[in-house]
Amino acid sequence: MSAHPINIIIIDLVNQFLYNTSILVYRWIVGFLSPFSDKAKKAHEGRKQWRQKLTAWRNQHTGELVWFHCASLGEFEQGRPLIEAIKKTHPTWKILLTFFSPSGYEIRKNYSEVDGVFYLPFDTPRASADFVSILRPDKVIFVKYEFWVNFFNTLRAQNIPLYMISVIFREDQRFFKINKNFWKKTLDCVEFYFLQNEKSLALLRTVSDRPALVTGDTRFDRVLQISRNASSFDQIEKFIQSRSCVIVGSAYVFEDRIIQQVMPQETDCCFIIAPHEINEERIHQIEKRFSKDAIRYSRWNGSKTSARVLILDTMGMLSSVYQYGEIALIGGGFGKGIHNTLEAAVYGIPLIFGPNYEKFEEAKLLLKSGGAKTVNSEEAASSQLLFWLKEKSKRELAGKAALEVVETGAGSVAKILKTLVNQ
């Protein structure tokens, strides 16, 4: 038996009130924490006087405008290949990029392929209406997970087409729970969905009939682009010499301990560790663990060394450094979730990571292909590392499978762009 229309209206109003209240509370918390937290301070200060700044920017950048929005750096990497494809095929179009998180904005605020970079204001009814009215975009593209109720409603009310790219849906998301009628209205604001997989399409169809196409994940295109333009590093080559090399990407303490177990058993091997957090405390922690076996990239002059652990203490190198490895150990799998696996897989090397990978479709594809192995303990990870280090033919076969996953998954940008320009 369906609910009475009046009851539905009341429930929607309550949900809207709760949503708006939560946004206001979050905004207040960010402001309150700003004197005590560097991240909160940047988020708070970066949004000050955004109306004046946005108005001045728009007055200087007239003409057809595409607005891209990403939550943070990871989503930016998914949006980046499409941004650059649009810039190449439609050079007269202006592009504005917004971030919600300081970790994205602070690193990419000077990104040269767009005409402007801003923080997204907090999603209140007034802020969303003002932002869209000032910006007057012709097309809007949000990446992956960013579903902001007031911004979506404002765009629909002003008949501005909104596209979602690299979207992935899961059953445990709020859109498919008790308040799905409220979220259906938000989902229906989207002009076109570009989804990562068939499961996401099936879930979307349970609540919305908006146009959608399974195009895959744009990160496959991005990592191929990176690998074709990968930087070379003389220091890395001097460090490795003729030894086998394991690259540890986004390393936490778990990964440090794995390497510590492997080192005595495989003496003709070196390790490059890129810590997840590049700060003095974390780097000193690695140095203390490996003692004389460790050197920092930034402090090493390239002279002959017997060190077996090189600590990457500079940003922006890892995606190219993977080319020097025989195996990649990816961090995060023993914590909240694994980090970028495709950056390593594109170089045709096998991957090892912890058990927390369920939210990452690309990790599942790599595991299914044999290009990656997941482990539930430090001991299992050490055993798998040693196996691939000793068994070259099996290691190379796994690496080939990893590369094939990337190559097969590429091509989503061209599909998305074709639809966008024809809309």
Structural class, please?
alpha/beta
Helix content: 40-55%
Rg, nearest Å:
23 Å
**Biggest sheet architecture:** 7 strands, parallel
Low-confidence parts, pLDDT < 50 over ≥5 residues? Answer: none
CATH architecture of the largest domain: 3-Layer(aba) Sandwich
> In DSSP terms, counting alpha (H) and pi (I) runs of 4 or more, how many helices?
19
Q: Kindly, what is the distance between the CA atoms of the first and last residues, rounded to a whole number of angstroms?
A: 39 Å
Number of domains: 2
Explained architecture:
The chain starts with a helix and ends with a helix. It has helices at residues 5-33, 38-46, 50-60, 73-89, 102-108, 125-135, 149-157, 180-187, 198-204, 219-228, 234-240, 253-262, 280-290, 318-321, 342-345, 361-369, 378-390, 392-409, 412-422; strands spanning 65-70, 94-99, 116-119, 139-143, 162-167, 192-195, 212-214, 244-251, 269-275, 294-296, 309-311, 327-330, 351-353, 372-374. The protein has 423 residues and is of the alpha/beta class. 40% of the residues are buried. 48% of the residues lie in helices and 15% in strands. A seven-stranded parallel β-sheet has the order 3-2-1-4-5-6-7, with helices on both faces. Strand 6 (192-195), helix 9 and strand 7 form a beta-alpha-beta unit. The mean pLDDT is 94. The protein has two domains: 5-214, Rossmann fold (3-Layer(aba) Sandwich), CATH 3.40.50.11720; 232-409, 3-Layer(aba) Sandwich (Rossmann fold), CATH 3.40.50.2000. The protein is globular. Helix 3 runs parallel beside helix 6 (125-135) and helix 6 (125-135) crosses helix 7.
